[in-house]
Specification:
By secondary structure, the protein is mostly helical. Helices cover 86% and strands 0% of the residues. It has one domain. α2 packs antiparallel against α3. The protein starts with a helix and ends with a helix.
Length: 97
C-alpha cells in the first residue's frame, strides 16, 4: 500500500519537474499548465479539454473587450478634439463678421 502511494508521489514530482523544465520561460504555454495538472490529478481527459478550451475562450473574449474599450476611448478623444476645434472656429468666424 505504501509503495503505491510513494510511487504515485514520485511520479507526480518527476512529471512536475519535467513540466517546469520544459516550459520554463514559455509565457504562451502557461495556459496549458492548469489543464495538465487537472489531467495528472484526475485523469479525466474531458475535464482537461474543457478547462483548456474555456481558458482559450476567455482570452479571446478579454482581447475583444480590450479592443472595444480602446476604440471607445479613441472615439471619445476624437469627439473632444473636434468639439474644441469647432468651438474655436465658431469664435473666429464671429470675430471676423
Amino acid at each position: 500500500m505504501y509503495k503505491n502511494i510513494i510511487s504515485m508521489v514520485i511520479k507526480k514530482i518527476i512529471l512536475g519537474g519535467f513540466i517546469l523544465f520544459v516550459l520554463n520561460g514559455c509565457a504562451q504555454s502557461t495556459a496549458f499548465l492548469g489543464p495538465l495538472y487537472t489531467l495528472g490529478t484526475t485523469g479525466n481527459v474531458v475535464q482537461t479539454g474543457l478547462s483548456y478550451g474555456s481558458n482559450k475562450a476567455m482570452k479571446k473574449i478579454n482581447k475583444k473587450n480590450k479592443e472595444k474599450n480602446l476604440e471607445k476611448k479613441n472615439n471619445f478623444e476624437l469627439k473632444q478634439f473636434l468639439k474644441v476645434r469647432i468651438s474655436e472656429t465658431r469664435k473666429k468666424l464671429k470675430i471676423i463678421k
